[in-house]
Amino acid sequence: MVVKKVEWDKQLGRRLKLRDLHIFSTVVHCGSMAKGATELGIAQPTVSEVIADLEHVFGVRLLDRSRRGVEPTIYGRALLKRSIAAFDELKQSRRDIEFLTDPTAGEVRIASLESLNSFFLPAVIDRLRRKFPRLAFHVLSIPTPTSQHLEVLRERTVDLAVTYLAPPFEHDDLTAEFLYPEALIVAAAPDSQWARRRKVELAELVDEPWCLPMKDTLFGPAIAQAFRERDLAPPWNFVSTDSAQLRLELTTMGHALSFAFRSRLRLSGKRSVLKAVPVDLHIPLGSVGIVTLKNRTINPPAELFIECARQLAKQLAAA
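RE: above sequence
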């Protein structure tokens, strides 16, 4: 199929309307012109006319019609992708203007791993809130990192993602900033005999009750490997769970040993409900970092968040 060249000034610039793109994206989302019309609250003939006009302007078929509804063609998917970007930039400009009129207000949309929501993320939010009390934060919690957990950035649902990173970062459309290296350390209740010792050998802890992540979670294999490398049998797992909160509660009650993030104990300081056991076992987890969508304008509140995260990361790295 030969796609005719579309001249912007003569056709697109004069005939293309944001309303038409909105109708097109709604129809694709609903999978039907009738459902799209109902969603938009307009007549179906109006929807059909808008789609036909768009196809005439671009000179290609944007939708494949069938009894089951409609699906975008390769040209339709290309238009949809750019339309989402266009509407997103307009929303960003509105947020920029609101922030410029009141620099103390605004919102930051964040996707964050659940494991980072108990120490690093709240520490950044707390610092920002002290300086900008009217900032709002919308946090999408991601249980575990997967190959798809950064899709929310491509969908422009969030401004940034806080996650664990390991080189090489191979995403052509995303930008990653490595903030600081993270590791797991052995943790116990503050009144534990192991926390009061000056030095502990890992072999002494194998037969103690432990509360560990499940084997198929992010940290399970790394923990098991750490014991194997020291020719030690796996520890007695008192409770195996994917719940970080349950592991924390059981450890602080003194029922078991567990692993904690090194930076968590540093951030908590004297307020920490856990204490590091002085055993030579640090399990590297890569780096905590921030990921953004490449070539997407970052709004001022999100820039404030990133800069605050950088400053906190420098302190953690120095410690």
